[in-house]
Amino acid sequence: MGLLERLEQQIGGFVEGLSARLFRGRLSARAVAAAIEAAVTRTTDEQGHEVATNDLVVRLNDLDLDRLAPHLELIRRDGEARIRQVAAARGWKLAGRPRVTLENTPQLPSGQIEIQPDLRRGPGEAELVGVAGTAARCLLVEKPATIGRDPGCDLVIETEGVSRQHARVEPRGDHYVVTDLGSTNGTTVNGARVAMQALRHGNVVGLGPAKLEYRER
């Protein structure tokens, strides 16, 4: 079981336990989680692929939101994990990283949940995994990631021949792009030297002697 799966299992268990201990007879964290899971639906993208609605706005009465306030971050993360699980179980693609937002809606009666599902486009989740010259690993979550030997980089590779700030991987539209940052030994994709290149699943990014495989999740 991977780190993400263990985290999702821990969050899910916490949410169910939280429901049993604190919210008997009231709107519970478990009820919110079940409503989020039920609200994930499918649509079709431009290529005809079935994709999951991955952007859910969860509206709660202010009293219910106050009761759940100490645990909203865990509930949100559990909801995002459930979107991934529903999509995987039904064979739907994710058009972008799942997002759950909890909103205060005073006019909503206490005990009721209103969910607005939508499609949030983006490159989705991917990772860079060291396959030669490094064991480094980096999860890409729709924000730029700098790679190099500098300790301030998002992905630090302490390999001779890798520049201090060697390359950057960042989202562009529905994919990630790798850009060389003026490194000494250059950046390659599948062996070809590049200044900037869109990445596809399975591409191998070379930073001097270090090789990272780009994997879409």
Explain this structure to me?
The chain has 217 residues and is an alpha+beta fold. The protein has two domains: 29-118, 2-Layer Sandwich (hypothetical protein PF0899 fold), CATH 3.30.2320.60; 126-216, Sandwich (Tumour Suppressor Smad4), CATH 2.60.200.20. Helix content is 26%, strand content 35%. The strands form four sheets. The chain has a six-stranded antiparallel β-sheet, with no helix packed on it. Strands 10-9-11-12-15 form a five-stranded mixed β-sheet, with no helix packed on it. The protein has a three-stranded mixed β-sheet with strand order 1-2-4, covered by helices on one side. The chain is built from four helices and 17 strands.
**Structural class estimated from helices and strands:** alpha+beta
Order of helices and strands: HHEEEHHEEEEEEEEEEEEEE
Name the strands of the widest sheet in spatial order: 8-7-17-16-13-14
Distance between the termini: 15 Å
CATH structural class of the largest domain: Mainly Beta
